[in-house]
Amino acid sequence: MANGQDHTLQAGELAARLGGELRHCPPDHRISEVRPLEEAGAAALSFLANPRYAPKAHASGAGLILVDPRTELGDRPVLVVENPYWAFAQAIGWLHPEPAQEWSATPVDPSVQLGPGCRIAPGVTIGARSALGPGCVLHPGVHIAEDCVLGADCELFAGVVLYRRTRLGDRVRIHANTVLGSDGYGYVLVDGRHQKVPQVGWVEVGDDAELGACVTVDRGVLGPTRIGAGTKVDNQVQVAHNVTVGEHCLLVSQSGISGSTKLGDYVTLAGKVGVVGHIEIGSRSIVGGNSVVAKSLPEGSFVTGFPARPHREWMEVQAAVNRLPKLMKELRRKKS
Amino acid sequence: MANGQDHTLQAGELAARLGGELRHCPPDHRISEVRPLEEAGAAALSFLANPRYAPKAHASGAGLILVDPRTELGDRPVLVVENPYWAFAQAIGWLHPEPAQEWSATPVDPSVQLGPGCRIAPGVTIGARSALGPGCVLHPGVHIAEDCVLGADCELFAGVVLYRRTRLGDRVRIHANTVLGSDGYGYVLVDGRHQKVPQVGWVEVGDDAELGACVTVDRGVLGPTRIGAGTKVDNQVQVAHNVTVGEHCLLVSQSGISGSTKLGDYVTLAGKVGVVGHIEIGSRSIVGGNSVVAKSLPEGSFVTGFPARPHREWMEVQAAVNRLPKLMKELRRKKS
Amino acid sequence: MANGQDHTLQAGELAARLGGELRHCPPDHRISEVRPLEEAGAAALSFLANPRYAPKAHASGAGLILVDPRTELGDRPVLVVENPYWAFAQAIGWLHPEPAQEWSATPVDPSVQLGPGCRIAPGVTIGARSALGPGCVLHPGVHIAEDCVLGADCELFAGVVLYRRTRLGDRVRIHANTVLGSDGYGYVLVDGRHQKVPQVGWVEVGDDAELGACVTVDRGVLGPTRIGAGTKVDNQVQVAHNVTVGEHCLLVSQSGISGSTKLGDYVTLAGKVGVVGHIEIGSRSIVGGNSVVAKSLPEGSFVTGFPARPHREWMEVQAAVNRLPKLMKELRRKKS
Lengths: 336, 336, 336
Fold this sequence. Notes:
3 copies of one chain form a homotrimer.
Chain A: E1 9-10, H1 11-18, E2 21-23, E3 30-31, E4 33-34, E5 44-47, H2 54-59, E6 64-67, E7 78-80, H3 84-95, E8 113-114, E9 119-120, E10 125-126, E11 131-132, E12 137-138, E13 143-144, E14 149-150, E15 155-156, E16 161-162, E17 167-168, E18 173-174, E19 179-182, E20 187-190, E21 193-196, E22 202-205, E23 210-211, E24 216-218, E25 224-227, E26 232-233, E27 238-239, E28 244-245, E29 250-251, E30 256-257, E31 262-263, E32 268-269, E33 274-275, E34 280-281, E35 286-287, E36 292-293, E37 302-304, E38 309-310, H4 311-335
């Protein structure tokens, strides 16, 4: 994590705060970060909310794993709590606290690095420690928070907002009023209230990507949400937290991608497509306009409909549905 | 109305301006506001555009009711006009004129009240008489108009716009470039032109609500559009005028709610859901992704589809539709 | 073109740059603009990418037409290249280069013309040579680029962005964070990369139009994208490049119109409607909510569904689909 603000807690202190029971883990073991099971090392806390992922938990190198009382993980170091997801959300807040936003008296913080040839319009603000490569153009009213990195020759049109730690490659163009890095939509229901899962990740956009106007891309929970190099995103597209969009994709207007979904390279989502979370769409797939993709698709798929199915199948079903009123009349005539 | 700018007209003056006929109402009766039938008192003008609502008109305490020539309301005080809805729109303009926007030379008007610990970034503007509770954080380029009230510890990210008279509870978080209080979409066709129904209400957001990026919530026509306490709204959601969203609801990305609809508490709209106007969705209902709710739903409903129906029913219909091409082939084979 | 920055090239120079072969055109013929076939004169370069449009090419007065090696146009002046669309995209960049954005030290450029009675809030920027009619009101954080023209009494709410050369009629109202004139979504795939088709057109909005919050309207490729007089556009609507929306239309929230489509007058798109590109919707047509219009519609159509069909037909199909599970059970019973 590029945060630089992370804290450390002993396992025993975590157990005490969360009212949980420590097993197979010394209470003085030091935990300094929260990570997904597959990326967690000895200093990381992770969590298992769904028994389906128990094999991942067994294989994980996590220093400590949050589990519920019904879960058995042999001799793995666990912290048993009533609601592992809620415990995980609280632990993010303790281990990865977000510093308060810093604003200097001047709109562009003195610590900002501007490459040669950058052009900054009136009304722009740039937060501490952000760095712009050579030749960047920021139109009026662009707001860049702290610790952002822009490559060479990026152009951000009026009103674009980059939340902290956003990273853009070279030659990225972003149209007016688009937002990168807003909090992902993550809550856990505790005693009748939606408690926030802190969102402390960031957004990464590859070289030569272009994003339209009023696009929203949420930052990841702990790590990045990614838009690949050469990908072109149309107006009013929504990309949720932890999504990975591959390279050279086309996301047409008003499409939306739910959390943690992965798109390969050269994927096309036509207008108004919806994609559910936690699935994968193989490279060179095409999703027809207004369709909803509800399960993973192999490479080179061509699907349409709600829910989306192979395009030819959808055409057949549509044709059949259109003949249905006539068929029903015939059947009724026979009956009588 | 918190407006403070409202005017008063005599019933006879209203009749003259609208070219209408006054019945059962003295011409010097003073009218000072426009209200819906059920909320109207003796000083209020109301209107009946749809004969379906005649019982409401009979029961109303309104000082004067706009009706068309075909409507009979006994001895109720009425003003008979050709187009009651257009007359109503004009009367809003006369009785609730919006003052011109006020801008002081300084971005934050001297009359603004800031609670202790508020942090205001560069490029923020706040209009006359607005009041912020303690600990509010306004990121760069936030624009708050006149007469807004924010509770304690609200955080508004860059580019958020609050129109006049917006009211936020405590701990409300609003992400970048979201707009609260824009005019509702209300027009009346008169002689081939869409004449505007003035929108002079406001937006209210309850404690602990969080709104994503590029969300739009229109202000009510005369009163509030409401987002309840603890409700979480995802990016690019649209909430039309006079909608009431209850407490602890989840409105997922790219959903839209049409005018005057009421959602109970703990309602979930999954991604890209549409809800028509003037209906009620009972508490703890769930609407599946990409569905369109076209009629009221009782508490605890679980619906899907376009139009939305009980989820199990929709699953059955989907399964049947998928088998339809095969069925048609079989029927054709039998025929021949 | 109002650009004033256009360049001129000889046909031979174009052929050399594009690696193409010139036929029936003297190499010193001067080309100064790129135009569609039907609007092209002797000084214009045009292109034919689809053999379907060959008759248009034959009839065109274009000084030079880009064609691929398989196309035969008799004695018309042509430039034969491998990929006419990509050649066209490159030629736009050469013949219609966009000047670098100009920002003066002051937020409102000294060359701006403000009519009497204009009110400009803090945080507004206006680019060189833009002109506002009398009585315009610009709320905080409005950003108007160069060479824009606003009629009388326009009101732009906070955060509205107008790209260069946007033209508004009289009494146009635009709500917060709406964007007019962002680049259209035009790319051509060359050697595995989406190369940009430069977008150098503009947006025109007629008198008395009103646009909601977070609306996006892209500028045309070479000419205008048009919103007709008296048309009312709701929040979060998307209008793509080269679209023409007629007069007095209603475009309800979250609808989207794809490129080059034409709407007549008094057309209504209900909420969340999608319209594909390159079609025409006749005047006084109504498209039901959540529908997708996939082909041209005659005047006075009333359609619904995905894909949209006559509303009555859609109702019949829906009714039949709802009875389908029962029908299938009956047929299975007979079979057994």
